[in-house]
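Hi Y.,

Following your request, here is the sequence exactly as I used it, all 402 residues.
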Amino acid sequence: MTVVLVVLSLVGQLLPVRAASTLTISPSRTQEASSSGVTLILTVRGLVGGRSYTDYWAVSDPSGNNYAITTTTVAPPSGNYTVIEVYPRDFGVGAGLTYVGQYSVAIFQTSPGTSLVGAGQFGIGITDKLFYQRTQLISIKAAGYNANDMVAVSITKGGIAAPGFPIHVTADGSGNIFASWITTASTLTGNYTVSLSGTSTPPKNPPDSQWFIIIPASLDLSPVVTATSLNALAISSSVTQPDGTSFSRGNVTGQFSASGMSVGPPIRLVYNQTQGKWTGSYQVQGGDPPGLWMLQVTALDPYGNNGQGSTSLSVTPPPTPPPPPQNSLTSLWLLAVIAAIVAGALIGFTFLKRKKMLPPHLQVDLKDVDVEASRFMGQDFFRSIQEQLVKNKDSAQGEKDG
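Below is the corresponding structure, written out as tokens. Let me know if you'd prefer a different format.
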């Protein structure tokens, strides 16, 4: 049959295509032992209405086995027709999804002329996907084993067995194997290999062996923020892992921003066991910007699983409070201190000026300094301060004498 396919393919390339056709294959990948099989949909347009057309469908599996059927269709007046076939259901005895790898499909129109009208491929594996996030369930299915055979299922990473593997599973009456592996948030990421081998079933060619990859989990966040009384913003967010369970251990923070600029510090959220959510709050300040605020919540665990979510709301900050009134007594003493400093500077400046004018061998007349100081201290402002100091001194002396 392989020779026939090659010959028909060459003939189809040499002959002109007299109609437009498409082949749709669904799904493009599935597992061994799939009960629904793979659907092949051939659509042909531009034919002669009322004429009979014969199509030859051929499928080649990874082991080199070929399975074929022939269909005959009378084109309707529109000149278009669609034929649907399912592999392996419609391809006779022996057809099956029992090997890992790529299956090739070729459809030729053999009457009234010969042409290639459709071609494609679909993949068959042991696992339901090739990429998994941590915490996702890895489904394992295989077929083609002897009924009730004891089959060893192993999962390895770099030659090291995954936790709990290998396991032994008994095939059902149809020779199918079903197993699974539940990964956790801390499962090592990277490339894994799953392999199966039977006890009484001869080794397959190609063998039941396939790679898959585990990547860090992408956490799903759904933050909500609401304005409460006293200008507070209440934050809550659900965080779920890929398997749908709640994320309850790790670091979850929120950050407000307005017009691309951060508002306030990062907010540490705490897991609320009762609500099953991460919660926190922010007190809006008078100096915060008004307008549309964006809240971005980020979750991270110690193993590198992470996720982000965001929401927004309009915020009107409270009015900025007026500055506190200044204490008059404090202001008086502050002015007194400043005035004393200024007076001391002036006295010192005068003293230095007179000293420079005297000959070096003369002594400075300290009386001049006293006179200058008395001139400044005689002012009313300093007199009131001096009187206050005298009263304080007399009061202290009286307490001492008593």
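The longest strand covers residues 101-111.

Thanks again,
Q.
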